[in-house]
Structure formats: structure tokens, C-alpha cells
Amino acid sequence: MTAETGQSSGSKPSDDAWAKLVPLDTRFSDIEIRCNDMVICSEIKPSSLGRHEWCRITKNLGPDSATLHNKSSDAILVDEAIIPKDGVVDIVSGSEIVPGPGGQGYLMYRFTVMPAPESRTQLLKISIDPDNAKCSICLNVWHDVVTAAPCLHNFCNGCFSEWMRRSEAKHQHVLCPQCRTTVQFVGRNHFLQNIQEDVLKADTTLRRPAEDIAVLDSSASIQSNLIIGSKRKRRLSTLTPPPEERDSLRLQCPQCVATIGGYQCERHGAHLQCHLCRGMVPFRTNLQVPLHCMGCDRPFCGAYWSSVNVTHSESTPVCSRETFRPISERTVTRIPFTTHEMNRHEQDITQRCVAEMGKTVQEVAAEWFRRFNDREIDRSRMPLNHAEMITASTHVCNDCYDKLVGFLLYWFRITLPRDHLPADAAAREDCWYGNACRTQHHNEEHARKRNHVCRPTRGNHHL
Ligand SMILES: [Zn+2]
Ligand SMILES: [Zn+2]
Ligand SMILES: [Zn+2]
Ligand SMILES: [Zn+2]
Ligand SMILES: [Zn+2]
Ligand SMILES: [Zn+2]
């Protein structure tokens, strides 16, 4: 039996299929699932009249998932797990179903949930006049577009950064170059960035020469959202601010109220909001210490405040130095939670391998970091931004450090000869989907029985 043709019988038919079983062999056609509860039958042979119930698929309440009930006389495979006769399993969009006990000779189906009618409208094409995608400072199509609030006008990052520097040099509010509204907030606009790219793709004559772009990029300084103070003057003249001003107090950083380390914030100076403590930190360029984590581009205040010896403040939260410091100064005491795609069986095996070698996680991480630093490791799959620029002196946040350690431990495990693994781990077969396997996250038995610290050998994963 190689060919399976789907037949359905169900209770509440509706016009549109909400899901499909898509055969991985394109010579066969999709089985559409139109009812919330549907029994799928198979024909033994296309000519035969004998029809067998194969499985029942019931839509779950949550989006994109269903319950599969094995109605056939034999076991079937769902995401490589064996579902016995009358067994029940949850399936999600992407789950792979083999209608027989072994992979051999059976057609594999991928369960695919169709987009809901609401999200189908996302496929609408939008047409835009390139004139509406231009920066009013340089009059070109935006490059690395940023949006100013509250007026929501858009500019090139480089153009607006330069404008902001000039306003600050003149101790003035930052006014919108287009409408003169006082700017209180500016940030990169990823949605408009897509439009910017589409416009330049549609009309390549609108593109600027590479040299112009390089100059623009060199003055671009907005990496994350900037908050630009504008209410501080009143605060300074009032000893006890009225409650409605409490919000604006969040704009006060230690250097807004006092000169520290030879620096005091401009009255309307721009601030970043620390991702960790949500406190304000002055936005300064040409600093020795970074304000953004290289791995995630999010702002962190710990390195800045420790560089000017500020450890606490009345007006704003302040992070300690430990939260944001160079990789070379960080240590790891246990395997981070995110390691091996959060598969705790693999984490446990790695832990045992490390212990077996008489080492600590820190020693293994340090050894692999040396290889990383010596560029012995391919960084293309690294889960951090700017992977090629990361060195021992790069400041990273706690999350990014955990991701880095996880990446190093992946290399430790994948290069470990099989006979160095504990016997129970060495006996396991590799999962076809390797570290990209989704089943390892919802099927405990599968996660335990197959090795997932390996490259995918199946599926459309580019990992
Ligand atoms: Zn511009
Ligand atoms: Zn404006
Ligand atoms: Zn300040
Ligand atoms: Zn980070
Ligand atoms: Zn902070
Ligand atoms: Zn797997």
C-alpha cells in the first residue's frame, strides 16, 4: 500500500477547508479538512471498494492545533512518535503523519492549518507613491527610517541623528524638521523599513550611491528608541511636583540633576531606556563604554553607570555592572536554560559529559570561547546579532551571554566522539530534524529517545 487517497465524512461541513494534509510526494493531492471533526478514510487500492477508517482529526479550541485519533487497525507515526491503534495525540501545523507503523512504503503527510480569513487579508498588496516615502531633510527615499513622536514624521536615521546633534549643540529642544513639533521620542520603524525596501526595489533609479549611504550610516546613531526630555524645566523649579508630573520624573537620570564624572545632561537631552531596569541613561555618542548590547541591540545601563561610579539614584533605577560587561569578565556556573533548544534531556547529557571529563561548565565554555575567538568555529548559525564582530571584550547582556554559552556547548557536544557520551545517550539515533525538531518541545518521549544535538537531515530547515 503506497497510495492513500483521502475520503472524508463528517458532521458540520463548511465552505472552506481549515486545514489540509499535504502529501510530501507532490504526485498525490492534498486532503482537505473541512469540518471541525472529520474522519479520514483510505482505500486499500484505488480500484477496491474496501474503505478503512484511518484517523479522526478534531479541531482544538486554540489556533493551529488539533487532536488526532488513530482509527486504523495498526499503529501510525506522528512526528516520529508511534501512536498505537485507538491512540490520541495533539498535532500542530507542521506535524508529520505517516499512516502506518513504519516509514517504509507509506506516504508521509504534513498537517497544515490554513490561514484564518482575517490574516489572509495581510496578503493584500499596498501601492505607495515614492514621494510619500521620502525624508524631508535629504529629500531622498528614506534610508534606515526612523519615526519621531508625537508627530510621527519619518526621516533617515543618519539625517535625524545629525539634526538631533545640532539641536543639542544649541541647547534647544529637538523640533521635528518637518512640522516643528517638539520631539519626545524617536525610534527605528521596522514596518516602514520594509516599505522603503519595496520602493527601492520597484524603482532602482531612486537608489543612492554607496558612498552617500556610507556617509549617512556613519552619522546614524539611533539604535533603539530614544526618549527626549521636554518637561524637566518645571521639575527643577518645583520642590514637590504635582502628581501629573510624576511620569515626567522618569526622565530624570542622575546626570540630569547633578554633574557626575564631568558630565551633565542637556536640558532637553536624549535618553535611552535600559531594557533591564527600565531606568533612564543619557544618550551619548563616542563613549568608551557601550550603551547597547552587541548581541541584541537593546540598551543596557549597567556599563555606563559603573563607568561614572553611579551605583544608585533617587530618580531612576540603575543597573549594577554585573548585568552588562565584557564576555571575558563573565563566568557561567550552570548550563543556561536556553541551551540545546531548551531540551532538558540534552542539557542533562551535556552536564554528564562535562562532569565525566572532570571539568566545570565554565572550563568547557572558556575552552570553546578560545576556539570561537580564534575563529575556529563557523558563526553563521550563531543566535546573536553582529556575530562576526563579537570578541572577548564585547559587552553582552545576560540573555546574550546565555545564548553564547549555549552556542559554545552545542559545539562541545556536536564535536564530542560518540564513545565519550554516556552509554544511554550514545545508543540513541539522531532525529531527522536535528536541533530544528519541533517535536522535541511537546513530545517528552521523543525528546528523550532521539539525539537532537545534530544537524537536520530532513525538512526545509536552513539551520
Ligand atoms: Zn534623509
Ligand atoms: Zn513632525
Ligand atoms: Zn540625564
Ligand atoms: Zn543582549
Ligand atoms: Zn538598567
Ligand atoms: Zn526530533
Automatic annotation (TrEMBL):
Q: Does the keyword Cell cycle apply?
A: yes
Gene Ontology terms: cellular component: nucleus
Query: Which GO molecular function entries does the Swiss-Prot or TrEMBL record give?
Result: ubiquitin-protein transferase activity; zinc ion binding
Q: Give start-end positions of Basic residues composition bias.
A: 448-463
**Where is the protein localized?**
Nucleus
Primary location class: nucleus
Gene Ontology biological-process entries: protein ubiquitination; ubiquitin-dependent protein catabolic process
The region called Disordered is annotated at 444-463
Keywords from UniProt, A to Z, are: Cell cycle, Metal-binding, Nucleus, Transferase, Ubl conjugation pathway, Zinc, Zinc-finger
Q: Does the keyword Amino-acid biosynthesis apply?
A: no
Q: Residue limits of the RING-type domain?
A: 135-180
* Protein name from the UniProt record: RING-type domain-containing protein
Phylogenetic classification of the source organism: Eukaryota, Viridiplantae, Streptophyta, Embryophyta, Tracheophyta
